[in-house]
Here is the input.
Amino acid sequence: MKPILADLLKLLELERLEDNYFRGESRDIGSRRVFGGQVLGQALSAASYTVEDLKVHSLHAYFLRAGDVCAPILYEVDRARNGRSFSNRRVVAVQHGRPIFNMTASFQKPEKGIEHQPGAPDVPRPEELAELRDVPAASMQNVPQKMRRYLKRARPIEMRPVESVDILTRAPRKPYRHLWVRTVDDLPDDSDLHRNLLAYISDYQLVGTTILPHGIRWEQDNVQMTSLDHAMWFHRPFRADRWLLYSMESPNAAGARGLATGRFFDENGTLVASTAQEGLIRIWPQAGE
Here is the structure.
């Protein structure tokens, strides 16, 4: 396994302190704060450690404070309910004595029932698209340092955007995007691990979809963007080491908040998971305005 992916798996394998207490480390992925997807994935790992024979089907989380990448995170799990068909867990993430995140997750014993789903978007296959990092050297020289650091950083997740990425001018465009994603190497056959990883992946670019119609850039000094909450539903089995199409759209922005929703489809067009996130978006006046 490639070292960068092995490091991510290690990041999601928390240290058990007591029955309901776990500790995780952090990684700097190019920002001053802990990546929200990391906290989601670790919190789901902590909750899953306390459940047997049931699989997570939904989670609802709130980001309370920015996380410190230089300090460990303590996860406290409350075993709110243990049932034969459903179990519920509440998780609080703590740093420096204060909660930075909380989450409720529901687990279900697998069973069959009615089924329907929307069709998958008609987009090019991942083999026809370039990786997100494949930016021509001439263009990269004109990219702001903050964006350059993000683009050039090696990641454990391969990303191939369907729509062209306007890294220089960021002209206004419709509030949707599609992104093929998968891990950079094969994974063990552990369904909990694949779900934890998809929770991690789901935070990539989701809230950023809300600013697409407005011609602003997250790396601008006068733009403040941060995740407020995150919800996710797991519908069907999948593998995070096989291509998944992440289809994102933003139906609304108002009150300094933007809402984005997302759907994950496998290569056969099967809907495997859905997600939603609201983020804080503030545009500060620039000097001279």
Notes: The chain is about 15% helix and 35% strand. Residues 34 and 67 are 5 Å apart (CA to CA).
